[in-house]
Design brief:
Nucleotidyltransferase, domain 5, 5-stranded mixed sheet, alpha/beta, globular, 10 strands
């Protein structure tokens, strides 16, 4: 079989998708692996996990990698590629591993952006376990945040929302904070009656602190039920998304354009219309013509389109790849063409 033109990878903290495509946009093979790393990617163990997904995609395409490049170009959209130094380090690892003949490393927010618009420019905000934002101007100039969490001034995503829920539940119990249904809902999720019991369990490492991310749906449900404290947490998240995207729009000097602002990540699947409307209103104040879109396709679609952009594929190849990957159930056997 002729070597595929493109390997497209979207690698985040929760999942890794790898897809092999021909130059004409036909999908040859695809695979999904769990990410297993929410504390910053770029570690060798995480990169090995990406390599494992690439091997699985190759086998799905009907061939064994056999220590040879599996594609001509690798487009790696990776969470944790936050600074140019990260890009170089991660690209160096892939180059030494020899998965592809040439490689490009981008932050995974760029895959979300490209998946959410037919254009090659716009702004994307990813809000899942954590949060990040990047943008591209019509002239190709880019902007992105470092996204180091508290070290870079970030707030948001499932971990921070869950941590806020726990914080408010504890203060509601001991009298320092407002009354809220989170006082009972938060410990109940972990099988406890009181927040104090939960905090002690986490303090003594009987329950991993990172599991606060599980509280995010509870916060959104409480907000929908008119809990004022929960609604304040959700509103804070909405406002933070507006701030991040707004900065990107201003820095790229596209406030007067009909910029597409793509929202990707699990936080946007809550179904909370008040949350999405607050974001829309806030962004309209920054860019009146902005079009806010919630991503409804796998971000690896964007990685594939970025790769096809790079190799100069025809528009029909872009359309074919998008259609195929939207209809592909990653992790299973996609409908594909051999050859």
């Amino acid at each position: 079989m002729r070597k595929p033109a493109l390997l497209a990878v979207d690698a985040g903290g929760s999942k890794i998708d790898a897809v092999l495509l021909r130059r004409d946009g036909n999908v040859l093979g695809a695979a999904r692996r769990r990410g297993l790393d929410h504390d910053g990617t770029g570690r060798e163990s995480f990169l090995e996990r990406i390599a494992d997904a690439v091997v699985a995609a190759s086998r799905d395409a009907g061939f064994e990698p056999d220590h040879q490049p599996v594609a001509e170009l690798g487009m790696y959209c990776v969470a944790g590629a936050d600074l140019p130094a990260d890009d170089r380090r991660i690209a160096g690892w892939f180059r030494r591993r020899g998965l592809t003949e040439s490689d490009v490393v981008r932050n995974d927010t760029f895959a979300v952006l490209r998946a959410g618009t037919e254009r090659t420019w716009g702004v994307a905000v990813v809000c899942g376990y954590g949060t990040n934002c990047s943008g591209v101007a019509p002239n190709g100039r880019t902007f992105r945040f470092p996204a180091f969490g508290e070290l870079s001034g970030d707030w948001g995503g499932g971990h921070d929302i869950g941590a806020a829920a726990l914080w408010h539940s504890v203060r509601a119990e001991d009298g320092r904070g407002e009354a809220t249904t989170l006082r009972t809902l938060v410990p109940k999720h972990f099988g406890f009656a009181r927040p104090k019991q939960l905090t002690e369990a986490m303090y003594f490492d009987r329950i991993a602190e990172r599991r606060v991310v599980e509280l995010t749906p509870i916060v959104f449900r409480a907000a929908a039920a008119n809990d004022a404290v929960a609604r304040a947490i959700v509103d804070r998240q909405a406002d933070e998304i507006v701030r991040m995207a707004g900065v990107a729009v201003r820095r790229l000097h596209i406030t007067r354009l009909d910029v597409d602002i793509v929202l990707g990540g699990g936080i946007f699947s809550s179904g909370d219309e008040n949350f999405l409307q607050r974001i829309g209103r806030g962004l309209a104040e920054v860019a009146r013509e902005a079009r806010v879109r919630v991503l409804d396709v796998p971000p690896v679609v964007g990685a594939a389109l970025l790769g096809l952009d790079t190799i100069g594929a025809r528009p029909e190849a872009q359309r074919r790849a998008r259609t195929a990957l939207v209809n592909t159930r990653l992790g299973a056997h996609p409908r594909r063409e051999r050859g």
